[in-house]
Amino acid sequence: MPSTTTETLSLVDERKVSVAPLVLLSVVDHYNRGASTSSKNKRVVGVLLGQNDGKVVRVSNSFAVPFEEDEKDPSVWFLDHNYIESMNEMFKKVNARERLIGWYHSGPKLRASDLKINELFKRYTPNPLLVIIDVQPKEAGVPTDAYFAVDEIKDDGTTASKTFVNTASIIEAEEAEEIGVEHLLRDIRDVAAGTLSTRVTNQLQSLQGLHLRLQNIQVYLKKVLDGKLPVNHVILGNLQDVFNLLPNLSTPTKGKGESELSYALNVKTNDQLMAIYLSSLIRAITAFHDLIENKIQNRQQQEEKDAAKKEGEEKEKDGEKKVNGEKATNGVNGEVSKEGSEKKDDSPKDKKK
Fold it and tell me: Where does the record place the region Disordered (predicted)?
């Protein structure tokens, strides 16, 4: 059975890969321009730029590379290394801290020609990093898989062969990138979604990712058991550590055939459900109280409006009565004044006669 070297252990245990969101956007754009309208098996290839301090590999930038391969024969492929060298020199002039640290392709899985392509990139960096970026993920989780090529020594004394070893990868952004990502997500984010729904959605996605990982572990162990894959003691040791962290479900029973663990879980669940029920009940009562208060307030406002309207109408009626009374008084006074003037006009005439 083949075994791994000390280099493999150090890569698996210590080295971590951090990928910037800018790289993901660049790869998706590269795929949409080059392979989205072509065959489903067609992939895109590019170069990764960043920094590698031995423990953390920071992938901060990337650029696309012309790449062609035969779909029927994976051993036939073409990669323009002259283009890689010229673009690498140009990027050095822009940012000297970003160095060529590896390459990427759109996968979504490893291909037979990946080891040969990786050997080509050893011209530019001693231990190139391969990041497979799934541009069309079907499962929730991190869409990146990082690999390093290491020597695999066989127990039968035959020549050691190269193989890829998976290492942990995360999506990590700097402050400027976080602002840009938030700006892009603002248009697609559901503003109406509350904190509780967001937490439930995140937890659901986490459980889906966990379920996918458990399925992969099951498939791997099945292949090892059937002899299709060699025994890897590092992976088995990590799985044993995971199993040791699981709670002991074989606890003694506590009445009615129920174990202490299930009894404790039921008590805790009932307490949580009671708290949720009380909070929902209080929220409903508060909503009814607010509804009643709003109805009372609306009724008072309507009564005030009606009273003000009625008072205005009464004032208008009183004003009309006063105006009519003044007109009537002015009319009587006018007739009296006319009669007086006629009498004054007639008196001189009578005297002349």
Answer: 298-353
Contact (Cβ atoms closer than 8 angstroms) between residue 22 and residue 176: no
- Its pTM stands at 0.60
CATH of 2-189 given 3.10.20.340, 3.90.226.10, 2.40.50.100, 3.40.140.10: 3.40.140.10
Round to whole Å and give the CA distance between 65 and 25.
16
Q: How far apart are CA 329 and CA 105, in angstroms?
A: 104
Instruction: Return the residue matching tokens 């590379």.
Output: 65
Name the residue among 236, 159, 166 with its Cα closest to residue 2: 159
Answer for the pair 104, 45: CB distance below 8 angstroms, yes or no. yes
34-69 tens-digit pLDDT: 776 666 678 899 999 999 887 889 999 999 999 988
Report CA torsion sign: 275, 281, 285, 290.
positive
227-284 pLDDT tens trace? 888 888 888 898 999 888 887 666 555 555 566 767 777 788 888 888 889 999 999 9
